[in-house]
Write a structure and sequence with these properties.
By secondary structure, this protein is an all-alpha fold. 57% of the residues lie in helices and 0% in strands. The chain has one domain. It is found in: Membrane.
Length: 178
Amino acid sequence: MPRMMQKLRAAGCRDDAVGLVLPTGYSFNLDGASIYLSIGTLFIAQAIGVDLSLGQQITVVLVLMLTSKGMAGVPGSAFLALSATASALGVIPAAAVALLLGVDRIMDSMRVATNLLGNCVAVFAVSRWEGALDRVTAKRVLNGEQPAQPTEPTRTADTVQPSATTQPAEAVQSPHDT
C-alpha cells in the first residue's frame, strides 16, 4: 500500500485524497471479491442444475455484497464467505462450493488485482471531484510520458551545486579577523 500511495501522489493526486480514499477502499471497496462471489454462485447454480429466479439472484448478490465487506486482508476468506452464504440462503447446496476449490487460489490473485484497480480509480475520481488532481501530471503519467515513481536525486560530491546564498570558505570572515 505505501508504494501505491507514492505512485498515486506522483501521478498528480493530492496527499489528502490518497491518504483517505486508498486505505478506506482496502476495507470497503472490494469489487473483485463481490464480482467473484456473484459469478461463482451463478456458476455453481448452473453446474448443479439449479435455476435461480431473478429474486433469488438479487438476494444472493445483495447478501454477497455485505459479506464481502468482512474479508479484507484475510486470504481465502472469499471461499469461506461463499460457503457460508450458500448454506445460509439455501439456494445452492454448500457442498457444491467445492467445485470452485481448484481455481480459488488463481482467482484470489485476480480478486486482488481487481480490488487494487478499483481503489486506484476511486482515488483518481475523488481527487478530480474535490479539485485535488493535477490533471496535467496525471495525463503525462497515464500516457507513459513520465514515470509514476518519484525519483530521488542522486547526490555525489561532483553533482552538489552550491546555492546562491552560500559563500566560499575564504570569503567568510570571522569577528576576530577585523
